[in-house]
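Final report, closing paragraph on structural work. Over the funding period we assembled a curated collection of sequence-structure pairs, and we close with a single example.
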Amino acid sequence: MSTPVTTTRDWQAPLMAKARWRPWEFVLWAAAFALPLVFPSHSLMVNEIAIVALFAMSLDLILGYTGIVSLGHAAFFGFGAYAAALFAKHVMPDPTVGLVVAVALSALLGLVASVTILRGSDLTRLMVTLGTALLLLELANKLDWLTGGADGLQGVVMGPVLGLFEFDLFGRTAAWYSLTVLLLLFVVMRHIVHSPFGATLRAIHDNRLRAMAIGVPVAARMVTIYTVAAAIAGAAGALLAQTTGFASLDVLAFDRSADVLLMLVIGGVGWLYGGVAGAIVFKLLQDWLSSVTPQYWMFWIGLILVLLVLVGRERLLRPWTWFGGGRKA
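Its predicted structure, as stored:
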């Protein structure tokens, strides 16, 4: 009896099937780009959601796909914001060039910081990543001659995107600019997670020792994906600085890292659209609750988070399962 031979095409087929775009995805992205035109008064909100969605997806690369926990992902977000703002103020105001510079510098920072996550337990990584963000926060505060310190970096004027599209007061150009960058980087991340490289990341996430035993270069993979995630987080920070014309210590604060974790809890980890869904729900809830109860909006978001953990996201989204029932036919 002959043993069936497994070819490269056999194990690549499932990856290619997952990477295939579905019709609803084209509709989703088309609707996103239409929002600033249909609802111009909400363009600034669309811009903010696009930025935090990109930030959330960058964290999902290391947390949901690789299993690297982090409480200091805001370090790369804030570094990218300051890099883009300083580049625009002191070198040239071109947003696309500034974005590329911020991404490159954030990737370099991620590469240097990646050595801190190669050893130790998850608790160690939580503390080390948090410490990295706090160090950058204090550094930005002390270098007030460069960063503006507690007052923030002001006087940042951005040129038109591609030399053609000026940033307007309504935020439509900013929204389309951020959505375009989000889509381009989403395509990159989608290609990564559905590639053989992405399959090794999932193997590391599931069982690091087993991945090492079958020959996966675990350390190299972790360094690579951490650097990529840092670059994408830096891009999100750069978008924030460029579309607002301002960078402050807030971009490096612990709240940034905590909020993006909440978005992934809401939207789900190990699924790129989870970052998008979590960002939409979180920002809309934050905007609505802060207008209804300005002093207690965090309480209600915390309550929703507790319900998600206790009840489960799937059961919460399917009310008929709250009492043990199954899916209706």
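DSSP finds 15 helices and no strands in the chain. Confidence is low (pLDDT under 50) at residues 316-329. We thank the funder for supporting this effort.
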